[in-house]
Amino acid sequence: MPRGAVREATISLTKAQEATAAGHAEDEARLRQLGYKQELRRELNLLRNFAVSFGLLSMLTGLGGFYYYAESFNIDTDEGGFTYAGPVAASWGWVLIVAMTLTVALPMAEICSSLPTTGGVYYWAGVLGGKNGPLMAWISGFLNLLGQVGITAGVEWTVVRYLIYLINSLRAPEDRVPEGEFFTRAQFWAVYSGFIVLHGIFNAISVKLLGFLSILSVGFHVIGTLVIVIGLPIIAKTRQSASWVFGHFENYGNQVEVMGEGYTTGITNSGYSFLIGLLMAQWAMVGYDSSAHIAEETKNAAVAGPAGLIMAIIGSFICGWAFLLSLTFSMQSPADGVAGTQQIFLSVFESRWGSGRGSFAFMLILFIASNFCGTFCVTSNSRMLYAFARDHGVIGSHWWKQINNYTGTPINSIIGMCLAAILIGLTMLGSSVAFIAISSIGIIGLECSYILPIFLRLTVARKWFKKGPFHLGRFSIVIGWIGVVWGCFISVVLILPTYYPVTNKNFNYACVMLGGTILLALLTWVLTARKWFKGPVRNVDVGNKTETLAEAAMRGELDETDSALGNEGGSTPSEEEAAAAAKAGEADKQFLAS
């Protein structure tokens, strides 16, 4: 290669290294302003940040698992399949839920741009809560942390269900084992725990592996969705009309001929039935705050964090809607829709070729996608535990907040959150009702934790909130209030009864779990936490800046430079590294010039 070409290539590489070093320095300087030193490794870019949230949302997992909005309230029997609003819930319900979710997500993205830390909604609530910041952080931390564990438990439960469907798809109809009889309770829990351990290992190895898996997940989800969206309608012997898919509303859950004797929902009001039917979509559209929880591992986090969050929702909407329409158009009968995604796949192949074994390929796509989803659930919840522990918000904080020097990951937090999900799974040994009751805190807990910092930003912190690079401009307040109102509304829907008459087996325990979580948070606050928990607290520059970050935010310290506070001589490690990189780059240039 000519000397001139080598010189040009080396200069380009040097400039790229300098830009990277400068970018790292800016991210670390901003994190320092927000009160924390850089401990996690920044090895994710915008694409990987988006990919983690996209993989966690995993429409193939959420919508595939709850297309019919069904729950087996007893793992030993195959109870409980039902549909509340027919094809309209699948086609237009998804559009409505995603549109309204954006009114919550956009204000969250705006706050993320201003305050890009791993604590996410917990940190935001603490900083924006003013004088009551520590209490707001305590409540939000409880809701988000327990919600994260509940979501992880629910996803891992779905992974095992998909495994059952996958194996059954290879069997003749008479040899298929009902879901509730496939495993004993102990076996189900063991398999469930095994997948949690596997997904924890993926998270513990390295951030680079996580970044690779996130990109692989995006490619797999897109290609897998295309295979199903194109292949399923082609294979289907008959297809539903567009007028039926987009315009037909029917409460199949109250029809004995569809549901079977003894399995009807007892709900007769059409409006109420439609609201409950929306939950299929709402359950799938939660967890996008993971883009914020990996902000301290993301380059240019003030832009990449909020952008990744919004991109994940939009990408999930496109893939999810295509997936839902494919299932609904290809449905051979309403009974298939009530039975669930796996039955739609089986019936399509059986109607065409007399055998459902070909559906194995489609179920394999869903099964692999659910494993990606489980992996990124652990990513998000372990970072939340790490952030909460960093501010001394949990017992054993010193242990949970440690970062492994070799992998650069919070291995202890990963272990802790995996163990929490495994322990929740133990309840299924006694009763699946208990497991579903406890894991129900997942959706409602996260939804409430999203609303709180938005509300605080619009009220307590309205005058002193400083916008970041990503903001909503003059629409910020309007969209924020719409998001708060919607969040409160859908939270109420999430706790409504889904069966009548209500019994201990079909009771919606989400209301009990939400009330219990808030009550526990308030009791522990009054009895003990208020005496020692200060909310987000600074772990860098403690000597010359306000330790409590809620108070620092009110004083405007989170946006001041070191020089503004009389700390001109205090060079951070990241600045030294940037200076060294720049000096090395200059030496390279001089060498090449000679």
Describe this structure in words.
The chain has 594 residues and is mainly α. The protein has a single domain (42-537), classed as Amino acid/polyamine transporter I (Up-down Bundle), CATH 1.20.1740. Helices cover 67% and strands 0% of the residues. It has 26 helices and no strands. Helix 2 (46-57) packs parallel to helix 15, helix 6 (133-168) packs across helix 8 and helix 8 packs across helix 18 (359-390). This is Amino-acid permease BAT1-like protein isoform X1. Keywords: Membrane, Transmembrane, Transmembrane helix, Transport. It comes from Micractinium conductrix. GO terms for molecular function: transmembrane transporter activity.
SSE layout and pairing:
Elements (H helix, E strand, L loop, with lengths): L2 H31 L12 H12 L1 H8 L20 H28 L6 H8 L4 H36 L10 H4 L2 H21 L1 H29 L6 H6 L8 H4 L10 H8 L1 H6 L5 H4 L7 H30 L3 H6 L1 H13 L5 H32 L6 H4 L10 H15 L6 H8 L1 H18 L17 H19 L15 H23 L16 H6 L18 H21 L1
Helix pairs in contact: 1-26, 2-9, 2-15, 2-18, 3-15, 3-18, 4-15, 4-22, 4-23, 5-6, 5-22, 6-8, 6-18, 6-20, 6-22, 6-24, 8-18, 8-20, 9-15, 9-18, 18-20, 22-23
